[in-house]
Design goal:
The chain is α+β, with helices and mostly antiparallel strands and 103 residues long. The protein has one helix at residues 7-34; strands at residues 42-52, 64-73, 76-85, 88-100.
């Protein structure tokens, strides 16, 4: 059996889900804190570290992603995220977010 070189697809999906979850959470918090007219801007995301426990995600899999701010300073965030499938961890990541367009 040939080595499956498609492992990166599952990892890319998991990182993207974690980044979207973190951005939505932080955007919503900004909205609650600063009101609906607050500059939401965008978020630039970098992966500081990641551990993956699966190579594949079957089609139709329900993935639950949680994220929590570990560090906040002005427009910078360091976030810990975890993705689970059927209650079992499939990825742990530390992301760094910087709000785009802020001075």
């Amino acid at each position: 059996m040939a080595h499956d070189r498609r492992w990166w697809r599952a990892r890319l999906i998991l990182v993207e889900l974690a980044a979207q979850t973190a951005a939505i959470s932080n955007g919503w918090q900004n909205h609650l804190t600063n009101g609906p007219t607050a500059d939401q801007g965008g978020w630039m995301v970098g992966v500081k570290s990641a551990r993956f426990f699966v190579d594949r995600l079957p089609l139709g899999t329900d993935i639950i992603v949680t994220s929590e701010n570990e560090f906040v300073f002005e427009g910078f965030r360091e976030i810990r995220a975890e993705a689970t499938v059927a209650g079992k961890p499939v990825a742990e990541m530390t992301l760094q977010l910087m709000q785009a367009g802020t001075d």
